[in-house]
Amino acid sequence: MKSRKAPGSDEVTADILKGGAGEPVIKWLHEMFTNMWENERVVKAWGSATRIRLYKNKGNKKLCDNYRDISLLSVTSKIFSRIILNRIQNPINEQLLEIQSGFSIEQIND
Q: What is the CA radius of gyration of the chain?
């Protein structure tokens, strides 16, 4: 997770999780993720993003083309997604035939 980024709807930043939050936050995340895994349900708010329009610092501010959209996603949902990806990545890679792995990470790094 990159630091100094805007938080999503949960208002939790990567800085909070990386920084001084420590053991209580890790325990809270573990309990929450375990509960979601066992109940096969995720936090409903994680399915949405907050969209913000940012000025590109060029051109007329009154023109929409001079803005770009960014989506603010929940940091905790990103962490949970990464955990799930890490759990399924190895079994998937083991089952793929060599001919099917043209776009796998291992092929790209070679």
A: 19
